[in-house]
Hints:
The protein has 267 residues and is of the alpha/beta class. It has helices spanning 2-31, 64-76, 90-95, 110-113, 141-144, 156-164, 177-186, 196-204, 231-246, 249-258, 262-265; strands at 41-46, 49-50, 54-57, 60-62, 79-84, 101-107, 116-118, 123-132, 149-151, 170-172, 191-195, 210-227. Strands 1, 5, 6, 7, 8, 9, 10, 11 and 12 form a nine-stranded mixed beta sheet that branches. Strands 2-3-4 form a three-stranded antiparallel beta sheet.
Amino acid sequence: MKKKKVISLMSTILLVSALLFGCSSGKDAEKSGEKTEKKEEFVYAMSGLYKPFNYKEDGKLTGFDVEIGEALAEKMGMTAKSITFPFETMIQGLIDKKFDAILGSMTITPERLKVVNFTDTYYRSGSQIFVSEDNTDIKSADDAKGKKIGTTPATNYEQDALKLTDKANVITYPQGDIGALMDLETGRVEAVVADNIFGQMAIDTGKLKVKPVGDLIGINEQAIAVNKDNQELTDKINKALAEIIADGTYEKISMKWFGFNLMDETK
Length: 267
């Protein structure tokens, strides 16, 4: 009988101790300011086909745009979630609220401004003509007129290509600029209109025998697109963007992916 009473008493003591410890832990967590609720997600979309800005490696989405989104989310007190979405339908996806923002090297255009908001510019680039390394016929935009030109659909680069040649001679590549640049070597297209930074980075890999020709066709302001009914998020992103530029986070990410600060190139 004594043995049973001892076991019963010990069980009671252990139960009370566990309850007290649990209550104490909860109170300590409250005192330390810890939050148990899940952070709000910042879901941002990109094509995933635009290396080194955004692309997949070993099945994981990575790149400059991905890391900028992560840095912005941290400043906004949110959890970053990058996803891929077809570039040509990305604006509609944003309007349909499939994600919070487009952070995928999207250029500000008058047409897009009619349906979405854009944040402050997070880098500038330019429309550039590229030709195969052994091409000596095309040296400028004038030389490219009437030629077969490759480009990415639903982009400002496609619009620039249409200024140089008729629609029948513009070959679009839904998989992105890299497909168009590769076709310069096959001869399917005679020139490509693409982002100058992207094209130069592709050349620097040593895998493409292509070269830029002539001056930039135009300068493109790249920004983050947000729904027009979400001015609060637009303001939060702008504030966070200014902060990551000021504290050096932006430069660190840019140096990692390009070897130079994109902001220095855009002043």
